[in-house]
Design goal:
The complex is a heterodimer of chains A (305) and B (256). With 305 residues, chain A is an alpha/beta fold. Chain A is built from 11 helices and 16 strands. Chain A has one domain: Aldolase class I (TIM Barrel, Alpha-Beta Barrel). Chain A starts with a strand and ends in a 7-residue tail after the last helix. The chains are: A alpha/beta (305), B alpha/beta (256). The complex binds flavin-adenine dinucleotide, flavin mononucleotide and FE2/S2 (inorganic) cluster (FES). Flavin mononucleotide (FMN) binds next to helix 8 of chain A.
Amino acid sequence: MINLAGLELKNPIMTASGTAGYGRELANLVDLDSLGAFVVKGTSLEPWVGNPPIRVAETASGMLNSIGLQNPGVGHFISYDLPFLRQFSVPVIVNIVGRSVDEYALLAKRLKDMEGIAALEVNVSCPNVKEGGLSFGQDPLLVKEVTEAVRENWDKPLIVKLSPNVTNIVEIGRAAKEGGADVLSLINTLRGMAIDTNSGRPVLAQGIGGLSGPAIKPVALRMVFELASELDIPLIGMGGIQSYRDVLEFMMAGASAVAIGTAVLRTPGMLIELVRELEYWRLSNGVAWEDIIGLTVRGEYGEFR
Amino acid sequence: MAGYVEEEARVLVNIEINPGIYHLKIEAKEIAKKWQPGQFVNLLLPAGMDGIPFLRRPFSIFMASKTEIGIVYRVVGRGTDNLTQLVKGDSLNCLGPLGVPIKRKIEPSATTLFVAGGMGIASIAASAIYSGGMLLYGARTESELILLPEVTGGLAERMLISTEDGSFGTKGLVTDLLPAILAVEDYTGIVACGPRGMLKRVKEIGERYNRSVYLVIEERMACGIGTCLACAIKAPEGYLRVCKDGPIFLAQEIVL
Ligand SMILES: Cc1cc2nc3c(=O)[nH]c(=O)nc-3n(C[C@H](O)[C@H](O)[C@H](O)COP(=O)(O)OP(=O)(O)OC[C@H]3O[C@@H](n4cnc5c(N)ncnc54)[C@H](O)[C@@H]3O)c2cc1C
Ligand SMILES: Cc1cc2nc3c(=O)[nH]c(=O)nc-3n(C[C@H](O)[C@H](O)[C@H](O)COP(=O)(O)O)c2cc1C
Ligand code: FES
């Protein structure tokens, strides 16, 4: 068992928001109950239409996306998806996204008394309409404000998901913690772009998108390490994880659990393999996760097989 | 129950049948068993040092036997180029069968008219063969026509071919054949697959003659199962997913 501020996971493997939908399609391929937690797609107060295609582009060892947080809204989630997810015993984490502080607060209020939600994950990598489109996640004051607004309306574990598009991730993480976050998750996608050299036009219709996949792993790992070094708060690491060795890196850097996004789009079955391989590694090395989590930060290097 | 699986399949045949066009046969027992005409498979292709192709690539299954599936593909980029390197015995990770079968939208029959442009033939050949309906099949030039017995074999007298350069069949666009046929024959439904421009013309002409038009759409994909929303196509309200809500749509369901 891994305990994240009261959120109990039977293993460290979670899905990453936006890459596993609301579970229906993935459930055909993967036993959701064998996961540590299931994180749903970013969900807003009203339905969001999303961006025009082309929405994805490939890059060296990664991909860019500009889905635009298309989702059917929290009402649809409550009436259609949550009942489906309640059939499973896996802890369900709802990723919420808003365009104003009020929207975040209202989302938390709507979800508060719903059965079958283990935690909220607050996605702050979204333009703040009121502040001229600057992302909430790039301003420590706004991160704190959003976190407080959700905290006031939510008693269960509260995760704040950080944007990597900042100069000082520790400052942002501290703001979320001060606002009442129980757990931090990171990283969301890095802003990037690709150009079609046959025309000079950006590949994505929106021009700029979010980079994910193995290409971002070293950046994600560094940020987890920095937060684990500076702040006392449980972390969920993600960004480019493809193998159980990648998971171990994140855990050694200080993550108590990890989320898998892009890799699930390529090979959904790897989720189950990761769970199995990690457990095998842990048992064959005779260690407990508490010993592994953050060992690089503590400098307690070992000899593992 | 959407019965799709991730299956480690084995390459049986991978040969160039026309310049730049290949016929791939793979042993994929589960997928072959579940496939229905119109469905596709999302393939994890061999990647280069930079990891490209990173995402899977979707291909129509044009036929399936008990244990095998058949694909015809055209080399257009890094993924399809790498695919040509696979030889008999190599393994290939397949996710499928995916997408809505054609017959869930329209029961193909002798009153169904099929229209294929270029590689679009792969998505509709099987339905055209089973249906007893007629196929209009166009390509730029003779060497781009796929006339494999497995693909168009059952269609001999029920197929009209056109090429843009006149090297085979009627000279011109495949859609040029449509008005004359619709004017005299009572095909009630049209199923078309091909480039966007062609699909637009089919929709226009079909609607002018008051026929139900169904379009099989291709869009860039990532997951192929409906979770990531990469493969969006504009609908009158918002977007639909080509991989999960399609790839076949009633023409009015989407905005081309
Ligand atoms: C449901 C479905 C069924 C398909 N069936 C077949 C088939 O039976 N046979 C076949 O040869 N091809 C088929 N395709 C197209 C095939 O998926 C692409 O040709 C392939 O992904 C190209 O990969 P690549 O790495 O070689 O090219 P890339 O390097 O990815 O792309 C090369 C060029 O093709 C364009 N392109 C790539 N993917 C698409 C797309 N989906 N739609 C439009 N343009 C694209 C790119 O913009 C680029 O200009 C199908 C696509 C879909 C969505
Ligand atoms: C297609 C796609 C959609 C995503 N949608 C969301 C989302 O709705 N909410 C969110 O917080 N993160 C979203 N993300 C970010 C992922 O959850 C994750 O933080 C990021 O992709 C890094 O992990 P990875 O490299 O394992 O994919 C999305 C990522 C991708 C690729
Ligand atoms: S490709 Fe992911 S939803 Fe269609």
